[in-house]
């Protein structure tokens, strides 16, 4: 998904920028990058964080240690190398962002045919940040350029642009990825995650609205463009991607997950010995389930945190499988002969749950395993953030493909209603495929209600396939 940070300070910002960027490490495992300006020159560093944590890669970097400046941007990237330093017609800018451009190949081809040159093309693919910069350069002003970029892309992109006049923070057109402004004694930070600045002494001032643009300068924060009227915040941030201590639109992630667990328990009727969450993001759901049902929480699966990152984030299935196999270790004495509910934040691909976690529990002697997902079955690859890209990646769509003679169907509406016969037939096949005693998904209305936000303000595309006109 990626996470971004911008800071402008009265003193050297490097240390605050370093830690605030690191606090976004749960959002990506491909690249980490930082750009710092002293007002005369902008310095940047980018490292692969695929096999080493952000902190270790940058704290040992001599060039980074010597970097100084009052303004800076940082990024944890799930795909592209960033930030990039680009010479636009408005000046020189360091740029980073969060999002995904579905029509990137089409746009790049059009620009190349018009004589535009791309330099960042790893594996033959255009760097989305460079593409965004080329589109912005078509505007009459930098703000006009950002608006033009939004109008051209199919997808979403929130951006930070560091230049001599300060730092522009531009949230994507419909606010699918969050940006929040915070302040500490005249210093200002804009970040994707509120957890990134709490320990640094910053206090939240406001959540940027969809399509809003602000400019951070040394003397003030100026609103350059007012927010739009349509918000479509990514609901999956609450379900899985977001860090538990963070808030989006004022709603805490951990609070959402505990409340969701309560709702799951209210709709459940199985007799079990305990409930357990799949660490880390499934844990809060188990606590909520326990609070509502009175069933104790136990920890039969223990995550070996020191050496393994999140298993959903790595880009390759091979790496995801390795992390899933190695990071969870069973406490066999708690499992043998026991009936349990296992709470998961989601069942996206289904491979980790089926091939690793459930196998470990059965091999340790579990008597019954009831799987409970905190969100509905995912039916559509995400169009707006870097996540699943193909129907065959999704567990639910593979089951439906099996039900329909090996072909993907266009109309999945009958399988979205938990009370329909089609849905129940699909769920039975899922239970058999996963090898669980029972399986239940959170209902869409229950999940959305747990956020406390208006339903029309939340993006549900990956579950329903519906988006705003």
The mean pLDDT is 94
The appropriate CATH architecture of the largest domain is 4-Layer Sandwich
So what's the CATH class of the largest domain? Answer: Alpha Beta
Query: Nearest-angstrom radius of gyration?
Result: 23 Å
Give the tally of structural domains: 2
Helix content: 25-40%
Q: How many helices in DSSP terms?
A: 16
What is the global morphology? globular
**Got a strand count?**
23
Strand order in the largest sheet:
3-2-4-1-10-9-11
Element layout with pairings:
Layout: E1 3-8, H1 14-22, E2 31-37, E3 42-48, H2 54-59, H3 62-65, E4 71-77, E5 84-88, E6 91-101, H4 104-113, H5 128-136, H6 142-152, E7 155-163, E8 166-170, E9 180-184, E10 187-191, E11 203-207, E12 213-216, E13 221-225, E14 233-234, H7 236-241, E15 247-248, E16 251-252, H8 253-266, E17 274-277, H9 283-293, E18 301-303, H10 317-327, E19 328-330, H11 332-335, E20 339-344, H12 351-363, E21 368-373, H13 395-403, H14 421-434, E22 438-441, H15 444-451, E23 458-459, H16 461-464
Parallel strand pairs: 14-23, 17-20, 20-21, 21-22
Antiparallel strand pairs: 1-4, 1-10, 2-3, 2-4, 5-6, 6-7, 7-8, 8-12, 9-10, 9-11, 12-13, 15-16, 18-19
Explain this structure:
With 469 residues, the protein is α+β, with helices and mostly antiparallel strands. It contains 16 helices and 23 strands. The strands form 6 sheets. The chain has a 7-stranded antiparallel sheet with strand order 3-2-4-1-10-9-11. Strands 5-6-7-8-12-13 form a 6-stranded antiparallel sheet, with helices on one face. Strands 17-20-21-22 form a 4-stranded parallel sheet, with helices on both faces. Strand 2 (31-37) and strand 3 form a beta hairpin. It starts with a strand and ends in a 5-residue tail after the last helix. Residues 310-314 have low confidence and may be disordered.
């Amino acid at each position: 998904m990626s996470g971004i940070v911008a800071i402008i300070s009265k003193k050297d910002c490097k240390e605050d920028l370093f830690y605030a960027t690191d606090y976004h490490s749960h959002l990506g495992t491909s690249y980490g990058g930082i750009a710092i300006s002293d007002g005369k020159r902008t310095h940047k560093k980018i490292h692969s964080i695929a096999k080493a944590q952000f902190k270790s890669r940058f704290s040992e970097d001599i060039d980074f240690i010597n970097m100084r400046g009052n303004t800076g941007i940082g990024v944890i990237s799930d795909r592209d190398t960033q930030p990039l330093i680009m010479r636009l017609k408005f000046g020189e800018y360091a740029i980073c962002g969060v999002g995904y451009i579905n029509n990137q190949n089409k746009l790049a081809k059009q620009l190349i045919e018009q004589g535009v040159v791309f330099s960042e093309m790893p594996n033959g693919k255009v760097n989305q940040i460079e593409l965004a910069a080329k589109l912005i350069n078509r505007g009459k002003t930098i703000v006009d350029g950002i608006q033009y970029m939004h109008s051209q892309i199919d997808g979403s992109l929130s951006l930070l642009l560091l230049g001599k006049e300060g730092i522009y923070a531009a949230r994507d057109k419909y606010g699918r990825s969050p940006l929040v402004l915070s302040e500490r004694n005249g210093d200002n930070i804009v970040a994707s995650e509120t957890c990134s600045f709490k320990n640094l002494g910053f206090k939240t001032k406001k959540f940027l609205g969809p399509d809003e643009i602000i400019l951070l300068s040394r003397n003030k924060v100026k609103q350059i463009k007012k927010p739009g009227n349509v918000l479509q915040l990514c609901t999956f941030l609450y379900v899985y991607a977001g860090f538990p201590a963070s808030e989006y639109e004022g709603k805490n992630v951990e609070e959402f997950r505990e409340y969701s667990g309560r709702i799951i328990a209210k709709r459940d009727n199985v007799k079990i010995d305990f409930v357990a969450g799949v660490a880390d993001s499934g844990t809060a759901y188990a606590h909520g389930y326990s609070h509502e049902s009175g069933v104790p929480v136990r920890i039969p699966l223990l995550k070996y945190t020191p050496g393994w990152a999140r298993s959903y984030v790595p880009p390759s299935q091979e790496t995801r499988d390795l992390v899933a196999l190695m990071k969870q270790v069973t406490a066999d004495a708690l499992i043998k002969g026991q009936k349990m509910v296992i709470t998961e934040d989601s069942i996206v691909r289904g491979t980790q749950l089926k091939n690793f976690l459930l196998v470990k529990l059965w091999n340790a002697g579990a008597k019954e395993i009831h799987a409970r997902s905190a969100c509905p079955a995912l039916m559509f690859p995400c169009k707006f953030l870097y996540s699943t890209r193909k129907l065959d990646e999704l567990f639910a769509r593979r089951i439906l493909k099996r039900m329909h003679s090996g072909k993907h169907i266009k109309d999945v509406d009958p399988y979205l209603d938990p009370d329909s016969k089609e849905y129940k037939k699909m769920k039975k096949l899922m239970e058999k495929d996963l090898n669980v005693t029972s399986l239940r998904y959170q209902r869409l209305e229950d999940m959305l209600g747990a956020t406390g936000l208006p339903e029309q303000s939340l993006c549900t595309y990956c579950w329903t396939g519906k988006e705003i006109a």
